[in-house]
Amino acid sequence: MDNEKIRITTGPWVLEEYEDADTLYKRTYRVQSRAQHLTYGQVGIASRVRRVEDARLIAAAPELLAALEDVVASAQANCSGSLANAITAGQAAIDKATKEES
Known about the structure:
Layout: H1 3-6, E1 13-18, E2 28-33, E3 46-49, H2 52-75, H3 81-98
Antiparallel strand pairs: 1-2, 2-3
Helix pairs in contact: 2-3
């Protein structure tokens, strides 16, 4: 995947735990690019994520997108039946992640 082509923040993305003084939640997570060097108060990719599972999924997004693009590109020419439906769903997810809304 070419991050510049779809204008996403350069990966890999990482998560870190911090205490958010502005909320009641003691465990809060922030996701940022390893290329970013944030100081206190800066947002990054996602901030105030309350569940670590959600933060992990957000942090994995660039790798998930790249893997799905590879699978869809490899399988489109050689699939039928339920696999074709899965490839169509995969392409729809790629489009959702990479195309601007009109």
